[in-house]
Write a structure and sequence with these properties.
The chain is mostly helical. It has one domain. Helices cover 75% and strands 0% of the residues. α8 packs across α12. The longest helix has 29 residues. It is globular, with a radius of gyration of 21 Å.
């Protein structure tokens, strides 16, 4: 559902540095207590603020009546469309991983589901760290390389959503807020793409830049850091292979267009004629709003983004606006969380696994 995960959870720093510092399997993970982490409480506070902004002045009694009148049978195809979206996301990750290891989609799917679930219920976007940790343990591949694929994944999620927002604005006039959001999103994700392409194609000059830096480190740590960075660059291999890059673009669009179906089906439950362009704009803005650090499940920013488009741009009545925002969020949240929990128990995971994932050490 969200385009973010890797940056906020701090996965990058922990994996590259702690892997290099440990250098041996079985290193002791650094346990993280979310309740004492200021980022967790900041996320909760931000969620409360955005939820207040989304619901302030809204006719909550009429919203409840609109929710009671909704035809929830439409949620069946809506949920099915979202699971198709998850399937395309798993296929894309399979493509991204090919330069590291050819992992079948059937083995990626459960880990993706667990990641969705963890992001929805655990703080600090723990699902991304858990995906890296679990895939690395399951497939015996470098977590630094896996981390690189997650960065590419997020970049193409952002660029795809940006494309859909721009397409929708060809048919729907938008306000200054959405214009500013579009420009900011473009700067973030095109900038990130440029940086990672530069790293992916760095070649010999990368070694010339790194050598004097690594020379200042103790011998063993220098070797391990160099190896981890090389593994990270291997994980960016899809950016260097035209066929893989084309497939990443195709599966990114397929994934988000499948989720677009979820937005359209839920709109039918409220007899709401969003239209394809309206659904694109709503989905794009709502998901880009989740760039803002918040509580598990992106509560608050998601509702605020949805209400912004429906109420201020599409001029939909406020009772239906809020009802739709709450129901679409629940549709995107509950089924995948339940399915992810099933895979969680099938894989015999525990909260200790999350602690190990968030304090990731060596491969």
């Amino acid at each position: 559902m969200s385009v973010l995960g890797v940056r906020e959870s701090g996965v990058a720093e922990r994996i590259v540095v702690s892997e290099a510092a440990s250098g041996a399997p079985g290193g002791t993970p650094r346990r993280m207590n979310a309740l004492t982490n200021w980022k967790f409480w900041l996320g909760i506070a931000i969620s409360v603020v955005f939820l207040y902004l989304a619901l302030r002045g809204q006719p909550l009694r009429q919203t409840w009546e609109a929710m009671k009148r909704a035809q929830y049978l439409w949620l069946v195809p809506a949920v099915m469309a979202f699971f198709v979206r998850v399937g395309f996301a798993a296929w894309r990750w399979h493509v991204l991983l090919r330069t590291t290891k050819n992992v079948p989609v059937s083995r990626i799917w459960p880990i993706n589901m667990i990641g969705f679930m963890a992001n929805n219920v655990l703080p600090l976007r723990a699902g991304e760290a858990l995906r890296i940790y679990q895939l690395g343990a399951q497939e015996k591949i470098s977590r630094s390389g896996i981390l690189a694929t997650l960065f590419v994944e997020r970049i193409f999620d952002g660029l795809t959503l940006l494309s859909l927002i721009v397409i929708s604005t060809l048919f729907i006039p938008v306000n200054n807020q959405v214009h500013a959001l579009t420009i900011t999103t473009a700067l973030i994700f095109f900038g990130a793409l440029a940086v990672f392409c530069l790293v992916a194609f760095s070649g010999a000059w990368r070694q010339r830049l790194l050598t004097p830096v690594l020379a200042r480190l103790p011998g063993g740590l220098s070797v391990r850091m160099s190896r981890r960075f090389d593994e990270f660059v291997v994980g960016l291999g899809s950016l260097r292979r035209g066929s893989d890059l084309s497939m990443v673009v195709a599966t990114s669009f397929a994934s988000w267009l499948a989720e677009l179906g979820t937005y359209l089906f839920v709109a039918q439950a409220f007899h709401l004629n969003l239209g394809i362009a309206g659904a694109m704009l709503t989905m794009g803005v709502a998901n880009v709003f989740t760039l803002i650090p918040s509580s598990p499940g992106y509560v608050g920013p998601f509702e605020a983004g949805t209400v912004l488009v429906l109420q201020e741009i599409l001029k939909i009545p406020s009772d239906i606006t809020v009802a739709y925002a709450l129901v679409i969020h629940a549709t995107l949240y509950l089924p995948v969380t339940i399915a992810g929990a099933v895979y969680w128990f099938r894989h015999h995971l525990t909260m200790n696994t999350v602690s190990q994932a968030q304090g990731t050490t060596a491969d």
